[in-house]
Amino acid sequence: MNYKTVVFLLLCCSQSLFAQINFEVDVLNKGAAIQPDMYGVFFEDINFGADGGLYAELIKNRSFEFHQPFVGWLPFGNIAVKNEAPCFNRNPNYVRLNETGLRRGTGLENFGFRGIGFQKNDDYRFSFYARVVNDGDKKFVVELLGSKENVIGKGELTVSGNSWKKYTTTIKSGATDAKGKLRLILKTQGEVDLDHISMFPVETWKGRENGLRKDLVEALFELNPGVFRFPGGCIIEGNTLETRYQWKNSVGPVENRPLNENRWNYTFKHRFFPDYYQTYGMGFYEFFLLSEDLGAEPLPVISCGLACQYESEECVPVGDLKPYIDDAVDLIEFANGPLDSEWGKVRAEMGHPEPFNLKYLAIGNEQWGEGYVERLIPFLEVLRNKHPEIKIIGTSGPTPDGEKFDYLWPKMRELEVDLVDEHYYRSPEWFLANAARYDSYDRSGPKVFAGEYASHHKTRDNNLRAAISEAAFMTGLERNADVVQLATYAPLFAHVDAWQWKPDMIWFDNLNVVRTPNYYVQKMYACNAGTNVLPLTRDNEIVAGKDSLFASAVFDANTTELIVKVVNASDKPQEINILLKQLNQSVANTRVNISRLHANEPGAVNTIEAPNKLVPTSTYVLAHEKGFKLNALGNAFYVCRIKIKE
Ligand code: AHR
User: What are 359-380's pLDDT values in tens digits?
Assistant: First the structure.
């Protein structure tokens, strides 16, 4: 053996000696309880998240109430918009078709939300409200069109009588097309009035008629969310007070829920979405129902009397807040009240006599300044008195530090809100550097709700780098579950052809869903939440960034498993020995189930064309007597589960 070989072998030897890192998990030292609702989702109607997204309605501007009644429609022949003797008083516009024997006939086409998605052999429930103006039956042909104007499905309806009635037919699609449209033609001469022209896939989530897109709800369901925050976000504030989200307008018969402008109809990089409105077809009743379906605690957010502070200075004088406070009190009644109460009765009439068991209520979204504090006070006075059982969430403003944050946190403490909503949209570097953020937080007073967060890579892509930094940061949420009690990534959904903001957790087009790496991080946390925090250390220190490694551990009392989460945010692999301290038993040869999210390329993303490029994979190792070894690849997030005897 020559001199060079000896040096080389010595180097290899010393590297492997130093390369292995020990993490120690104090298995018997069970710490803070992890709230069962800790990891959840935050839904906002941004990026066509509701209309054109989760809400399965396929017809845009179904009630002709947009600022221009024919937005979304192409009328042909003789058509006029009218509002005398309407079918629905809160959505009074309707159209009058007058067929006089024109060659093409009289009718309408609808382009949906950047097209209508049709699946071959799926059924679509088409309906409208109609009345004949004079006399005689009037026949309509309804056509599903593919993107090349080809007819891929056909139905017929005959309208009779002079009073408004609902007509329904089901049409099968003969082809799959993500960019189809609908055509409706009046075939009989004479005049007919039409309103609320609607079409849903028959197959919605749980088959409900005013239903939600099944594939999108399934993506939420798989996330196993513990809490469901809705309906925003800035939309609860509105660009103006008039256009704030008013939950009372979002309940009752769907046809008569008045249309509202969407706060996301413009602004981001000056892109303008004049066709972005809220039908409220998916309103508060549907939100509560969805929370229940998902097994998540509902967490509504309501206006505190400030319009979106990024857009306006409009505010309700503190003395005039009563209607806003009434909205809060009535919302609790809508969710939880008895059947003989005014709003409990509305809930029951909509189909849910049982209460929704609302426990949380957020007053205001991302507000800031004294204006917020002075408005929150009267809400608290009334709510604490009438509903001490409800946990109230206040805010710390739009950023996780700085003047607004430093002003609001002590105020929230002073006002004794139950949780403080923190928002952070920051770089991956910030997320990595802040994994220990909560280790030194004040343990007294309000708990933290990380209500909106996402790692913003410079490309703003939902790539692995961003996801890994979130996973690293979340080890700090988990370790501090005594103070951080709820966490929701934001925003949740984005339509690939109609987004205002990115990154977003789930992307979709009219037919397909893309689960991002960020989605999988959330899922891996929520499905492996555990019940109690366990101390995990390296050389007696928490693992929050040294050698780009991050880790945390929990115990799951339901399964008696130890769950260890490890993030390697560097490019290099790292061998880690996870030692189970204080365990008076050998775990030799016990199976350790391992889920891994990894790619060699940190910029890797999932797309409509390749939705499964980056998905978690499963493997296992066998434990040694005192723990197990994890060969942690670079750019990887691991969840390891091992059963132990208690
Ligand atoms: O999640 C997108 C927006 O970010 C929310 O509407 C708002 O609360 C925040 O500014």
Answer: 999 999 999 999 999 999 999 9
